[in-house]
Amino acid sequence: MTKSVWTVDKSHSSLEFTVKHMMISKVRGVFNDFEAVVEADPNDLTDAKIEFSVNINSIDTRNEDRDNHLRSNDFFDMENHPKMTFVATEIKKKSGNNYDVTGDLTLRGVTKPVTFDVTMEGVNKDPWGNEVAGFSGTSKLNRKDFGLVWNAALETGGVLVGEDVKINIELEAHKQA
C-alpha cells in the first residue's frame, strides 16, 4: 500500500481518560469532539504524519459540575486554551503492528513530548467498498507537567485528584479518495 490520507470517523472512535479520585477509585471521562488526520501506509506507520486536535469544551465525565470545574482555570483553562493538540514527531516500530508514536502534546499552553503505545488494528472494507483502518493507543502522563496542578488535601491524608492520567484512544479512520 502507498501512503494515503485517513480521516477519523468520530462515531466509531473514542478519546478516553482515567485519573485516580481520592486515592481509592478512578474517574473516567471522554472528549466527544476531536479531529485527527493520519497520512500513512497502514502496513508501515514509521513515516506517517499524525495530527490530533481536541475541543476541551467537549469533556464529559458524566457530572456537569465536575466538567465545568475541569474547563475552568483550575484545570484546562478552556477560555484561554480551548484546544489540546498532538503532532507526531517520531514513530518507531516495536514489533508486528505495534509502534511507539512520540509527539508534541500541547495542553493549557504547555508543549511536552508524550509517547503513545499504538497498535494498527487492521484495514477492512465497509459494506460500501470504502477502506477503513483501526488504530488503538494508550499513554500515561503527569497532569502537573502541563500546569494542571489544582488539588485538595484529604482529611485522612493524600489528595483528591491523582497526578497520573491514563489515556486510551480508539480510532476508526476512512481512507480519502
TrEMBL record:
This is Polyisoprenoid-binding protein. Belongs to the UPF0312 family. Residues 5-174 form the Lipid/polyisoprenoid-binding YceI-like domain. The lineage of its organism: Bacteria, Bacillati, Bacillota, Bacilli, Bacillales. It comes from the Bacteria.
